[in-house]
Amino acid sequence: MDDDVTMVRIYLHEADHGRRKTLMQEILNLLADQHRVQGVVVFRGIAGLGVGGEVRASDLLRLNVDLPVVIEFFDQPTVVDAVLGTLDGMVPKGHIIAWRVGRR
Amino acid sequence: MDDDVTMVRIYLHEADHGRRKTLMQEILNLLADQHRVQGVVVFRGIAGLGVGGEVRASDLLRLNVDLPVVIEFFDQPTVVDAVLGTLDGMVPKGHIIAWRVGRR
Amino acid sequence: MDDDVTMVRIYLHEADHGRRKTLMQEILNLLADQHRVQGVVVFRGIAGLGVGGEVRASDLLRLNVDLPVVIEFFDQPTVVDAVLGTLDGMVPKGHIIAWRVGRR
Question: Which of A3, C39, C102, C104 is deepest in the core (most CB within 10 A)?
């Protein structure tokens, strides 16, 4: 592998709100404008477990209401540290995962 | 990062069955009821390679038949060890991946 | 865990082209035919950041144009090394991530 970077996954629900925009959109704006982070992809899950253990899932009769959303990105560890510092007040504690990976 | 947790990904196909319910639903019930595991998200892929190397993919003319499904969750290493012990008889060998990550 | 394998994620955009087929299809063919790689799943994101920082996203009024696609697979480290050597000329630099995980 050519170099070491830090991979991050942020776990949200679609109904999450921050100020006037959705939390997902606020985080994407921060990643794009302030940090020029590389490799940002957003995934939507088809089901997830809520806080009380209930299963949230999509099906044909219900719209995709409050499904889990994961924002994934990777960059130099110093860039990621700066980003995580900024995210602290925006994302509920325990919802950000990070680990070292090789990039090629 | 605030603490170390174990991240797990379980690889299934939508047609997988366990007893009377789909294997995916059985695993989600186990994670919710028995272990109260945190951070559970289910993803559906748009294509995958089957056992014989054939590509399974969705397209407009076919319904989403037998697409790959990935159940992802993270929790304290001791909780994850207990969960993996329970899953051993339910998931085909070689279909569970785990690694240590930092959580914040 | 039973053994150590290498997990890989390849980041593409749906509009990526390689020779006459899409890059995604070329990579899947290579993984299936030449390497018989295990555990291959393709995911499509709902949004991503492009090279210039712009957000690419799907919404009801636009078709899913140029969304991010991630090809994920895992296998023995020696198999993965061989695969990555073959992918070098096909995937833009910096778009492949790899790390060690336990498999069960």
Answer: C39
Amino acid (one-letter) located at B49: L
Strands, DSSP E only, in A14-52? 17-18, 21-22, 41-44, 47-49
Q: The pTM is what?
A: 0.88
Residues A40 and C45: their CA atoms lie apart, in Å, by 10
Which positions in chain C touch B97 (Cβ < 8 Å)? 5, 7, 39, 74, 101-104
Please list every residue in chain A whose beta carbon sits closer than 8 Å to the beta carbon of residue C54: 32
- C94–A104 CB contact, under 8 Å: yes
Distance CA(C83)–CA(C61), nearest Å, equals 39
Nearest chain C residue to B48 by CA: give it.
C41
Dihedral sign for Cα atoms in the order A92, B70, C79, C3 = positive
